[in-house]
Amino acid sequence: MPHIELRELRHDDQDAAFQAVSASTSAWPRATFDDRDAFDRWTADKKVDARAIVEDDTVVGVAAALEVDGDREILLAVSPSAHEDAPTEALRLLTSQEAERPLYACVSADDQPSHAILARIGFVEHERDGDDVVYVLPPTLE
């Protein structure tokens, strides 16, 4: 498997990150953008902590955490050209960097690959919201 890392989304990552999000087959409702300007506004929003997903030396997606209705929510968009293990590894890295629990994710009900990735990391279905499924990564006991 190639080396996967998350880093702060830099200005020079924006083109590759937007292309990855646009090409992504993931259906994460809060990572859908009509155009580059909307993407740039979203990544510049102080409420969004966006990170570049880097496979070896190439930006292949975006991982982000943001506040939604008072809860911490994460999302991920990865290019189909990325290694098949890149989404799982990126999500694992993101959840390890986000200490707050519970941690939520919202995915389109018909996005089976994303459901499988969330389950692999330990997320469980929390509720259905129309065409979306809300997952939660509950707190762990130590």
How do the helices and strands line up, and which of them pair or pack?
Layout: E1 4-8, H1 14-23, H2 36-44, E2 48-55, E3 58-68, E4 71-78, H3 86-97, E5 103-108, H4 112-121, E6 124-129, E7 132-137
Antiparallel strand pairs: 1-2, 2-3, 3-4, 5-7, 6-7
Helix pairs in contact: 3-4
Mean pLDDT: 90
Instruction: Give the end-to-end Cα distance, rounded to a whole number of Å.
Output: 31 Å
Element-level helix/strand string: EHHEEEHEHEE
Shape descriptor reads globular
Give the helix tally. Answer: 4
Describe it for me?
The chain is built from 4 helices and 7 strands; from the N terminus they run E-H-H-E-E-E-H-E-H-E-E. The protein is α+β, with helices and mostly antiparallel strands and 142 residues long. The strands form 2 sheets. Strands 1-2-3-4 form a 4-stranded antiparallel β-sheet, sandwiched between helices. A hairpin with a 2-residue loop joins strand 3 and strand 4. The chain is globular.
How would you summarize what this structure contains?
By secondary structure, this protein is of the alpha+beta class. It has helices at 14-23, 36-44, 86-97, 112-121, and strands at 4-8, 48-55, 58-68, 71-78, 103-108, 124-129, 132-137. Helix 3 (86-97) packs across helix 4 (112-121).
Structural features:
three-stranded antiparallel β-sheet, four-stranded antiparallel β-sheet, 142 residues, 4 helices, alpha+beta
